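Hi R.,

As promised, here are both runs. First protein below:
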Amino acid sequence: MGVCPILFIILDLFRETGMPNQLKRFLGFKLPVVHPFRALSCLSVKMLKIFIGLVVAGLVIALVLENYNTAKHPKRSINNSNSNRNHHGDIFYNTHPYPGAEMDNIFWFVQVSDIHISRFQDPRRITDFEEFCSETIDVIKPALVLATGDLTDAKTSSKLGSQQYEVEWQAYHNILKRSRVLERTKWIDIRGNHDAFNIISLESVNNYYRKYSATKKEGSFHYIHQTPFGSYSFICVDATLTPGPKRPFNFFGILDQTRMDELSILESKSLNSNQSIWFGHYTTSTIISPFPGIRQIMSSAVAYLCGHLHTLGGLMPVLHSRHPQGTLELELADWKDSRRFRVLAFDHDLLSFSDLSFEEWPAVLITNPKAAKYTNPAVEPLGRIQSSTHIRMLLAGQQ
């Protein structure tokens, strides 16, 4: 059964009487009730207790450091916390062009996260991901793809230890090559904590990210997507540890003062763009950073895209939040077990997104009007919605 190319649908508000129904995108899991001492060995139970203890301790440290200056430099003033926000200015809040009948001023892109290519677990994870790269991406035709970390699993067969396996990285690389996805879209893949397990230095021979990824670039960076109607900034936040410790000791990411200064420079450069998207592997709640904190640095962005927490064992299938400064934080469920991915679009500088499941069609993303609870008034020209004349959406489905 084939799939039709992505369609762009525009509905005239004065001729259409009904709003298309949104598809339900919630994925639930029922966890079996298993007695821990029957399911786990004594060693496994002990390791689980140690891991839980480390997570709790890390959360306490993160809360303490939230308001503590870990930098060697004096604290910087944030009295004017909005000085770098709403960089469009009020003059652009309700100005032309408005979303209308023409397919203009729009582009879309895709995020996938926590792929966890493994030599020991779930062989279909690899075959499904190859189908995603060759068929799903070919249908949706995104301008770029963000693969936000944990490209490989790097766990031992017992799941207790960690090790970089070249065969996992070769499998990932071969998928990109066989699917020819790099010829059809801009593919940006970054490191997650699993991709940094057991790596003494970036020059280490087992730092396979440098050899087999598409980006091959550690550290934070700034990618600018150029369109006929303006430029859009995509800023990567690399909080992975160097050297990379064994599992599970890099559950938290760290940004030192040097990295924060680099990100501040990138943020300043992004102010010339129509809009900015920040992306990384870690959620901001699992990043330790010096004052004023990573959330303040990225406050001019419309959204921060990340992964890392999966679905918290199925307990939290949706992990979306809003920073105090207004930036949206949109954690994406994993590809590993959930087979989730995300389609996002900028339509007249208004960001919309839809979290989707692999092989579930049709894929629908309404771009105008955008969902009210995901607006960011500080940086989005929301007045254009009120002045728009058409409902606009992206649609891909089976023939």
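And here is the second one, sequence first, then its structure tokens:
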Amino acid sequence: MGRFGESWSPFRKLIYLSVVFFLTFISFNTIQNLAAQIYEKNGYFTLGKICLFAFNITFCLGSFASSKAVDQIGINRSLFLSSIPILLVYIAGIGMAACVETDAPPTYCQSQIFIIGFHLVSYLCAGVCIAFLWSAQAGYLSELASTSESGRYFGYFLATVNSSFIVGNILPSIVFRVASTSTFFVLLLICASISVIMFYWLPPAGEPNGEQSNQLLAVEENRNRQSAATILREILPEMKRILELRKNPAVKPWIFFFLLFGFTQAYNFGFIYRMVEIALPEGSESSYILAQTAQMFIIFGVGISVFGIFVGKAIDHFGTRFVAKITIIGYFCYIGLSFIQLFFRSYLIACIIGGMGGTADVFIETLLCSAINKEFEGSLDYFGLFRAIQVFGASAGFTILIALDTFSPIWTILLMGSYIGLVWIKLPTNQNTTENVLNERLI
């Protein structure tokens, strides 16, 4: 890796990282939002949901191993290498579209096993790589930001990155009206490829002096001697070690918290599009439905972008526990409005649901990053544990959605009841957090 931008200020490096992740997730968030619907409309029915389920399985496993792998490989190198296999997801989409759109489909289209297998391999690889990306990102930002301003840095970062929901969903809202599905996947592939190049030139987070530079070179040489087999052998013990962290009394309430929000993420990516479908006239063309769904996800992205900056500041000022309870109430209203949509079937309500979902989503993402930095001293081990728990909840949610394939009001009622219970859970905090200062003032 080059030392491009080494002398930049921390905030300038934050902007660069945010832009690179923005480009990465313009592509990935868009396909994650629409995969279930795109494959269903192209005759592959549950393939999209199955791929998202596979993605979440390896995302969960990768989250356990990510802290050790990132430590061994290095933050910058992990970011670059992890961004490459994600390209397979868009290549698989191009291949699927070629089977549907061309009069003389390629030979591989005759083998459903090959198509499904290639998609599964692509999403399985993407799950591990996205886990490594997020873990390395957390380490990078923790090196950039001090504890007192971590909420602001993570808030700016997530607001920028999650605005990809807006730009990324403007793309399909236009493309599906004037072009083909293959064109859509090609554009995603181009955007993701640019981000891979930018990851290569990402400047290091720190500004080492001469002595530190020599130490870093020694560490780099040691990493180069680490074989892939050595790292793989260490993954299983590392997973066991991270799982042991769940016994920490300060961790237990957060486990339930992130598990339930994992369920909600499955709802976001595996079902929320039905909120739009039931609001549109029966018999609408698939391209029109996909375009209208993309517009709803634009509103989803607006909610993320607008509130992403404020939530970081709120965490710095009020503390993680207070913001966590506000987040729970927001998700409760979000799911409750979805239940109402089953009866009113309004596109306006569907768009409001999208905005509320995006707002709640950026709250939980910022909470995850900031809580690790404030409550657990920026430990990537805890980041891996909580991310794995969240993704495990999402995998369980996708399993339920695949099994049911249609919405059940019972699913909503269970989620709503769970969130009400979470409001009363006391989330532990360290003595140095702003929240404890506020509590002392109140006393």
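A quick note on the second one: Residues 10-44 form the longest helix (35 residues). Let me know what you think.

Best,
J.
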